[in-house]
Amino acid sequence: xxxxxxxxxAAQAHFADYPEPGELFVLGALSLRWxxxxxxxxxxxxxxxxxxxxxxxxxxAIARVPRESLRPFLAEWLDTRExxxxxxxxxxxxxxxxDPGARLGDLLSNPDPxxxxxxxxxxxxxxxxxxxxxxxxxxxxxxxxxxxxxAFAACLLGEVRSxxxxxxxxxxxxxxxxxxxxxxxxxxxxxxxxKAWLQGCxxxxxxxxxxxxxxxxxGDQSVMPWLIAKMREPELAxxxxxxxxxxxxxxxxxxxxxxxxxxxxxxxxxxxxxxPLPVADRVAAWWDEGRGGRSHTLFHSxxxxxxxxxxxxxxxxxxxxxxxxxxRRFPAWT
Length: 334
What we know:
Layout lengths: L3 H14 L3 H14 L2 H12 L2 H14 L2 H13 L3 H13 L7 H6 L4 H13 L6 H6 L6 H13 L3 H14 L4 H10 L3 H12 L5 H7 L9 H8 L2 H14 L10 E2 L17 E2 L1 H9 L13 H14 L19
Antiparallel strand pairs: 1-2
């Protein structure tokens, strides 16, 4: 076992006291590296009680172990009728970018919408154009998440015209999915057209914050005066901070431009719980001094790496979506 019997027992004891996703991640990573079926089964059973958080933890553990450690389990996970195991199998294929061949077509028609959703994502990421008809059928899927993922896959497979109407509907009707839909819409739309489209979103009160957060995706730094003004509005400040991070390759955690002390920004900001928030006056001074990131070491966040990988995959029909997380020694798995 990777950490020895004592380490495994300690991980079990800690999870018994604190049955949280982080503790489950440790159980999952240790059991998979060890390769002991009984230990892996224990970790999977523990995940059931944590719901989606448990599945995400095991997905992260799967991403962190070598693919060789997963081989004894993968076929069983994919061939079983248990939905949770199939989802784990698809997580393994996704994180390690493994094409399961004809089996993927069967998974696209699985009765469980979450299995189908994960299969759509994999088909798009691997550029399986032979599965495009099934992906396009998924645009009429039974759940918003399924339709969103099918649209994501369709875009990667070059069918943006089919995907855009679905993305537009999601932006209007599904607040939880709207940021991802707007992101893909902008990435797959010519710059001039995407600016006009996003302007339309900004004019809708329900979409103002989400659209403001996406401004940085356009890469136009001339928007900075407008963005700084939005930082002074409590309802848009957090979103404006997100846009700022997309505009510059700067590690803003290494600056004083953001704060977690919302009351320090004024009485109107006191109720805000989202953080960190940009300090508008400091950002304005930073921008007016002409720095704009030029005095800082070039920094690419995990988000920037993901966006760059998406842009590269969208630009080349034959290029699979690269695993951007593996560019870091200690990647952030999601």
